[in-house]
Each structure stands twice: as structure tokens, then as C-alpha cells.
Amino acid sequence: MNSPSQPVKKICLIVSRGSLDGVYPALIMANGARMEGIEASVFFTFFGLNALVDKTLDHLKVATVGNSAMNMAMPMLGLPMTMPFPTWMGAIPGVSAFATHLMNKEMEKLDVPPVREFLDLISDSGGKIYACKLAMDMFKLTRGDLCERVDGILTVGQFYEEAAGEGSHILFT
Amino acid sequence: MIKNLAGTDLDVNEEGYLTNMAQWTEPIAAAIAEEEGVGPLVEGHWRVIRYLREQQSKGAALTIRGMGKSGVVTTKELYDLFPGGPLKKSSKIAGIPKPVGCI
């Protein structure tokens, strides 16, 4: 086992969700790692592939249904956090788009880029972006469907090979 | 605390960042760069350093995205120029505080 002073040298993030709020944390962690001189790779699987598919990656939405932690403050209306956001409300047409609009606006203020620009940033910083082979097959996707920043389509075994190394960590988001 | 670099006594914090950017000179930048393992400073480094000091004196928040969009340097170049932590190392060499943001 590593001693507590053993630094993180590499971080491999797995993204399995394709909502905006499902994708951003991993992108932020990967970019943050590169800024600290830590190697980073992000492996997109299942619905996470939406963040790599050229036709969908600019249109990811905040999940407003089935999110029990959602409340009127996040990222909706600036009302108290203690006011619940009922799931039925999230199902109303336009509500997810509106919540997405609000989150995008806040992100821009914090200088957090949109997904496509974020992938460019991570890629330019030397971070690696991978798609899951099995999920690609399941969704009938090919390399041509993905944005150009994708470094490769990996099997699970290849992902673990890629993750090898002392001080390397794998995180599922 | 006080640290002597390039023959000058400087006020620095525990991580070695200058606490008074007015004490900074080019030879001090070169000395910090050497300590940080950033090779001899070339024109690209100086462009970044000048930009950082200018932004800092304006009170602007520094982010890696902002650097890439500044037109001073691309993201790739910034990582190449300051390996192992581009914004942290360049800020240290520029004699300004360590950036506090996550982005």
C-alpha cells in the first residue's frame, strides 16, 4: 500500500453518464490534474459517449428528472436550497433546457468552457480521451461519429493497461 | 519569510511565491525558473511572464482557459514551456501569487 505522502501521478477517470452534470466533474478533474502536472485520461462509456459524439456533445443537458438532490437553488431559480424541486416539474418540456441554460451561464462566469472546448483544452494539455469499445458497439457508433480529439477506442483490458503505473488512480464518476 | 535569490533578499511565502511582486526582477525570474526545472527562459517564457504580471496588476483572475485565449500563448505551448504545472510554475516565476482557481 502507498504511504500517505505518495503523490498522485496519474488519474484515469471513467464517465458513464451523459448529462451535463454527469460529464463536467470528470472534465474538471482531468483538466485540474494536468494543471498540477498529473497525467490524466478520461474514458467515456455507456451514456457518457454522448460527450464524445460530434452530433450530441454540444447539446448535453442537466438531468432534471430523477435527481433527488435537485432543488430550487441548483441551478434553477435562486430560491432557497431547502425548497425541493419536484421530479414531475423536471419532466415539463423546456425545464431541462432552461436548467441547462442557467448552468452553462454560471460555468461561463467561472471560466469553465463548454464541453467541446473542454475536450480541446484537455487534449492540448496532454490529457487522453478514450471511448469504450463495448459501448460503441452497443450504440452502433463508429470512429467517424466521434469528435476528432478522441485518442482511441479501448476495450476494458486496454483501459486497465493504459491505467498502469505507480501513483496511478482510477475514478468512476 | 526571506529568501535570497539572484543576490537579493525577497519576501516569499512557505511555497516560495513572492509576496511582493514589486521586488521581482528578470534575474530573479531566471533564478526561480532554474529552481523549478524550467530551462533557460526564452522569448516564449517572457511573453507569458509579462502577460501574467500585467493581468495580476489589473487584478484579473488567471485561468488556464484564459491563458489559452489570451493570444499570448496556446495551451499546448504553455504546457511545453512550463512542464509539470503550467499556471503554477509560470506564476511563481513571474513573481505573482499562486493561482487559486480549479480551472
Summarize the structure.
In chain A, helix 1 runs parallel beside helix 4. Chain A is of the alpha/beta class and 173 residues long. Chain B has 103 residues and is mostly helical.
Name the average pLDDT of chain A.
94
Number of helices of chain A: 6
Integer tally of domains of chain B: 1
Report the end-to-end length of chain A measured between terminal Cα atoms: 23 Å
Strand residues, percent of chain A: 5-15%
CATH class of the largest domain in chain A: Alpha Beta
Q: Give the structural class of chain A.
A: alpha/beta
Characterization of the model:
The complex is a heterodimer of chains A (173) and B (103). Chain A is α/β, with parallel strands linked by helices. Chain A has 2 domains: 111 residues, Hypothetical Protein Ychn, Chain: A, CATH 3.40.1260.10; 50 residues, no CATH class. Chain A is 34% helix and 14% strand. Chain A has 6 helices and 5 strands; from the N terminus they run E-H-E-H-H-H-E-H-E-H-E. Chain A has a 5-stranded parallel beta sheet. In chain A, strand 1, helix 1 and strand 2 form a beta-alpha-beta unit. In chain A, helix 1 runs parallel beside helix 4. The longest helix of chain A is centred in the N-terminal third of the chain and has 16 residues. The model of chain A has no long low-confidence stretch (mean pLDDT 94). Chain B is mainly alpha-helical and 103 residues long. Chain B has one domain. A two-stranded antiparallel sheet of chain B has the order 1-2. In chain B, helix 1 crosses helix 5. The model of chain B has no long low-confidence stretch (mean pLDDT 95). Chains A and B meet through helix 1 and helix 4 of A and helix 3, helix 4 and helix 5 of B.
